[in-house]
Amino acid sequence: MIAETMARGMTRRTVLTGMGVVTVLGFAGAGPGLAATAAYEEELAKVLQGRTAKDGRITIDVPQIAENGNTVPLTVTVDSPMTESDFVKTVTVFADGNPRPEVAVFHFSPLSGRASAAIRMRMATTQNIVAIAEMSDGSLYQQSAQVKVTIGGCGG
Amino acid sequence: MSTAVKPRVKAPAKASKGEIFEVKTLVNHEMESGQRKDRQGAVIPRKIIKKFTARYNGRVVFSCDWYPSISSNPYLAFNIKADESGTIQYVWEDDDGTLYEAESKLAVN
Amino acid sequence: MKIKASALGALAMAAVVTAALPGAAQNDQGEKPSFLRNEYQAVKPEKANPLTELISGYFFRSRETQALQDDDFLNPGFLWVEQGQDLWSKPEGEAGKSCADCHQDAAATMKGVGASYPKVQPDGKLANLEGRINLCRTQYMKAPELKYDSDPLLALTAYVRHQSRGMPVKVAIDGTAAPYFEKGKEFYYTRRGQLDFSCASCHETNYGHYLRADFLSQGQSNGFPTYRLKWQKLGSLHRRLEGCVQDTRGETFKRGSEEFLALELYLAWRGQGLPVETPSVRQ
Question: What is the dotted CATH code of the domain comprising C78-162?
Fold first, then answer.
């Protein structure tokens, strides 16, 4: 509740640094000023299965402004030793404002060496990218980043 | 592209034991989302690559599930830790069941 | 605007600024067009050119878009170039010939060709690369024409033009080409559509400025066929021109039409000296 109240008056810079806090409390609602779809909430619930995701360990590398929403580069990396006893099992990537919010699920193994993957994705509008990582011990981590999608003008 | 699907893979031929290397892949595929309509207003049926798997000497080292939000001509980069010489096999699975395949050889010293 | 970083300098800077804040998006400057970051390379135009400096569309794009062009593996345009390479030696038509039967190794025989098109053909008509490929098909291969913007025609066009990558655009505008050049020039400066825009309204007078969310370039043609993120595929210059005319809310012309061919010649001349970038990547 506290974080959600704070979010209203925040500048973008503070929202970015504070985003972890907002999203931890924000499962029921979207990030500040952006409407997540009901479909996203549904899919997110399937991944969480009533569990809570902790903040941190995930880095989402996306452009802050995408020149075109049809091809947005995304790299997601999870900090993990990637050993037999401690590794990242899956990373689920959502676009919370797309008609179908699921983007990709990455399945890693200790032989992945590094829990990192890059793709190019479609974004219908300005929205949040959300990544949920499930570790080999069953713990969950979450991170999100906003991408502004350029629409309008005369792209021909 | 309406022409034959032909994956491109960029992976090293050599690595030291324990080295983590990056594999880059690119496939020509329209990734029709199922969200678009044609000029008559009919929904264009979904046809995407839904699964990618990388096997290193038969062991699944990385895989992923894709959804309609993946761009056309999908690009994917991931990592593998070198532990033995052999073959890395890459398989893309289409909605219609078709498999697109590629492989690379790796010498580990 | 006056500072001209070298292409290498621009690339080096692009490499440095990719580190993201932990868990969050990049800094505010990251996606500004290269032109606004004063990281661009300009070519000095010939005297008659109305532009004071020639700047490729590459420098009007963000780092992310540029990065897709900088690496031949990341660049999806190469899917077409590779397909073109396969088609080059594939026999088609009643004559049972392939491109390679007459032109052998494209790397040697097509070097520089793409930089010099469009060109007036022996029949006196102006043809672009697409037209010339179809001319070869109908006259010598006895094969049907390939449809404009079809994957095989895009692939062959991109493959041939790619053999000139890095070479300066240089077209003939004198002699039999002169009337086409004049026609293209007239097209360029003619206001059209409900918006009453000429090509010059955006690309000569206002390049380097935003038109709503669009950052206007000089409208140079040196990168075509281009992989456009919006199209999610490779596309021809005429497809882009069609979009431009439609954006003025005017009636457009057909791809491959005489109007667009003349304009293509004029545009090539306006960018004379810029390096061929095919296959480029644009937004």
Answer: 1.10.760.10
